[in-house]
UniProtKB/TrEMBL annotation, chain A:
Domain ABC transmembrane type-1, residue spans: 95-303
Protein name, entry field: Peptide/nickel transport system permease protein
Entry keyword set: Cell membrane, Membrane, Transmembrane, Transmembrane helix, Transport
The organism of origin for this protein: Mesorhizobium qingshengii
GO cellular component, as recorded: plasma membrane
InterPro entries the UniProt entry points to: BPD_transp_1_N (IPR045621), MetI-like (IPR000515), MetI-like_sf (IPR035906)
Annotated family: Belongs to the binding-protein-dependent transport system permease family.
A Pfam family assignment: BPD_transp_1
From TrEMBL, chain B:
UniProt cross-references to CDD domains, sorted A to Z: ABC_NikE_OppD_transporters
Signal peptide span: none
Domain annotation ABC transporter: ranges: 5-254
Stated family: Belongs to the ABC transporter superfamily.
Protein name, UniProt field: Peptide/nickel transport system ATP-binding protein
Keyword field contains Repeat: no
Cell membrane recorded as keyword: yes
Keywords on record: ATP-binding, Cell membrane, Membrane, Nucleotide-binding, Transport
Molecular-function GO terms, alphabetical: ATP binding; ATP hydrolysis activity
Topology in the lipid bilayer: Peripheral membrane protein
Subcellular location: Cell inner membrane
InterPro entries: AAA+_ATPase (IPR003593), ABC_Ni/Peptide_Import (IPR050388), ABC_transporter-like_ATP-bd (IPR003439), ABC_transporter-like_CS (IPR017871), Oligopep_ABC_C (IPR013563), P-loop_NTPase (IPR027417)
GO annotations of cellular component type: plasma membrane
Lineage start: Bacteria, Pseudomonadati, Pseudomonadota, Alphaproteobacteria, Hyphomicrobiales
Gene source species: Mesorhizobium qingshengii
Length: 316, 321
């Protein structure tokens, strides 16, 4: 297990390096001079040169990458070109909002999606199963920004139940929670459908296995067979799906944060890209990739924890 | 508690999109406490459907006619909840394939604790000590440690022992072993048969052993039912079946058992032809198309159940008492 964890973490670090190399290559390949785009066509050559030096764009690309990682190892992700504030501070300010949003959405999706999938299996072939099936496909098909805009119109503009924008007053839990409801729901809705369908599909497969018949032959109640004997196996593909899906949850956070003008990583990246604020883009991408890679590793370790057969493969 | 079991005029059909499959037709069997009953026949003859019906584990598309009386209660007429309460309490099933019979992500001990869920009077620790004792009784050394193993950490033979232990833990009146040795190699098979012979001495409920292996049946059983194409074609004491078989199918089956050959043969004998399609069972004798003694009525008239002695019966036009 330890060797497996070390191997996965090593691979994760390699992925981080590759992503950053790709990012620098992209900046290098994008036509036009970032300084000109940022400062506008009427900037003086002196100002441009100053900015280019400040962003480190005069150095060879490979050297920029080495410098970036050398600084990153000491916790220095560079400085915002415009405000001169450390990128690490900007990211740390924005990150909690996004993480709370993403994790709330994920938790809601799991807490509703998994029981719905189980219910579908226990009531297979009935009206309840059919309704869950149709609704799941329905909500998967609706993009999160559409949900965001319509819920904004309904709950914030027409009914005035929930705040339209922002992340709530600092220190006021209730106002923060209220501000979280719509963005989280917008992201979670589609995932409820995904998870319910995924759980149902893998559960149906597991329910056909002989060990379920054994559990039935001992007269175990159906809810116990579903929740203990089947779910523990059926949840494994769902964990992989959710871990991979977290990337798309975080990217839908970009849209949703834009719609609700909610401070967060998504808004930070969008703004930084629009103003060609490369140090902020690079620092944010590094942190997001690191989070994403960590979650994937955590999911793999969790799967190894849940399934003793996987555990043994890596022990041997 | 143990009582007698009797299936009378039991028929099971599976409703499929391609029509109904009449897997079991007008089966009569009976079993009394202390008896070991063998059910033998080739693949697809309805053995598994019969025991699955007895254990109330038929799939949703199965339809039952006739009755299964156990201890004076008609199992076929119980609602799903009452059926579930009997399973794992009065009726226990030893599953067919020990390799896949247990949940792969739960320990043996965890599962066997759950399987004793009808025993509300016992705590977890008591259930675990019962498991340890029972595992020891079925010949598993180091039972305490084995309980914390996952199924894949045990060998096939050991898993089959655990499956038998699991069934015995529930102290059932009716123990059904569906092909208990089919998935095992010959050495393991001999060990499991030996174990079951020992167990039957201390057990006073009904044991039903299903096998297509004649040797297993001969070793373990008091009485045998021979099944063909969803019908019981012959039934009787194990001696009568093995030494005085009257139905042409039973005779042909015995003639194909490699264990009974004295000299080495170039080719193993087989029964020519294939069993009938059970979506449209024949109107006459089900075995007639493959039977070398078939005559005029066999193709059109269903043969009666001929009583040959107190317990020996055969369903054939060609036999006479």
């Amino acid at each position: 297990m330890l060797a497996y964890a070390v191997k996965r973490i090593g691979l994760g670090l390699l992925i981080l390096v590759l992503v950053m190399v790709a990012m620098y290559a992209a900046v290098f390949l994008v036509p036009g001079d970032p300084a000109t785009v940022a400062l506008g066509p009427r900037a003086t050559p002196e100002l441009k040169r100053l900015l280019i030096e400040r962003m480190g764009l005069d150095l060879p690309v490979w050297w920029q990458i080495v410098e970036f990682f050398r600084n990153a190892l000491t916790g220095n992700l560079g400085y915002d070109v415009w405000s001169n504030r450390p990128v690490s501070t900007l990211v740390m300010e924005a990150l909690p909002n996004t993480l709370i949003l993403g994790l709330t959405a994920l938790a809601v999706a799991l807490l509703i999606g998994v029981p719905l999938g189980c219910l579908s299996v226990m009531r297979r072939g009935t009206l309840a199963d059919a309704v869950i099936g149709v609704l799941s496909v329905g909500v998967i098909a609706v993009p999160s920004f559409v949900v965001a805009i319509y819920s904004l119109l309904l709950f914030a503009v027409t009914l005035r139940w929930l705040p339209a924008i922002g992340a709530g007053e600092t220190g006021d839990i209730v106002s923060q929670a209220k501000a979280l409801v719509m963005p989280a729901a917008a992201i979670a809705l589609g995932w409820i459908g995904y998870i319910a369908r995924m759980v149902r599909a893998s559960m149906m497969e597991v329910m056909g296995e002989p060990h379920i018949r054994t559990a039935r032959s001992f007269g175990l109640p159906e809810w116990k067979i579903v929740s203990k004997y089947a779910l523990r196996i059926a949840i494994i593909p769902t964990i992989s799906l959710v871990a991979v899906g977290l990337g798309s949850i975080l990217s839908s956070a970009v849209f949703v944060e834009a719609v609700f003008a909610r401070p967060g990583i998504g808004k930070l990246i969008t703004d930084a890209v629009n103003t060609r604020n490369y140090p902020v883009v690079m620092g944010t991408v590094l942190i997001m990739t690191a989070i994403y890679v960590s979650i994937t590793i955590a999911a793999d370790l969790l799967i190894a924890r849940l399934d003793p057969r996987v555990r043994d493969v890596f022990r041997g | 508690m143990s009582g007698s079991l009797a299936a009378s005029d039991l028929s099971v059909r599976y409703e499929t999109p391609h029509g109904a499959v009449h897997a079991l037709r007008h089966v009569d069997i009976e079993a009394h406490p202390g008896e070991v009953i063998g059910i033998v026949g080739e693949s697809g003859c309805g053995k598994s459907t019969l025991v699955t019906a007895l254990a109330n584990l038929l799939p949703a598309n199965a339809r039952i006619d006739g009755s299964i009386s156990y201890n004076g209660v008609d199992l076929a007429k119980l609602d799903a909840h009452r059926q579930r309460l009997l399973r794992g309490d009065e009726i226990a099933l030893v599953s067919q394939d020990p390799m896949t019979a247990f949940n792969p992500v739960l320990t043996i001990g965890d599962q066997l604790v759950d399987f004793q869920h009808h025993r509300k009077d016992l705590g977890r620790a008591q259930k675990r000590s019962r498991i340890a004792a029972m595992l020891g009784r079925v010949g598993i050394a180091d039972a305490e440690r084995r309980m914390d193993c996952y199924p894949h950490e045990l060998s096939g033979g050991m898993r089959q022992r655990v499956a038998i232990a699991a069934a015995l833990l529930t102290d059932p009146g009716l123990l059904i072993a569906d092909e208990p040795t089919t998935a095992l190699d010959v050495t393991m098979e001999a060990q499991i048969i030996h174990l079951m012979r020992e167990l039957r001495r201390e057990y006073n409920g009904i044991i039903i052993v299903v096998s297509h292996h004649l040797g297993v049946i001969a070793e373990l059983c008091d009485r045998v039912y021979v099944m063909y194409a969803g019908e019981v074609v012959e039934g009787g004491e194990v001696d009568a079946i093995f030494h005085d078989a009257r139905h042409p199918y039973t005779q042909a089956l015995l003639a194909c058992d490699p264990a009974r050959f004295h000299e080495k043969l170039e080719r193993l004998p087989t029964i020519p032809g294939t069993p009938p399609n059970l979506t449209q069972p024949p109107s006459g004798c089900v075995y007639a198309p493959r039977c070398d003694r078939a005559f005029a009525p066999c193709g059109s008239v269903a043969p009666p159940l001929v009583k040959l002695s107190a317990s020996h019966v055969a369903r054939c036009h060609a036999v006479t008492p």
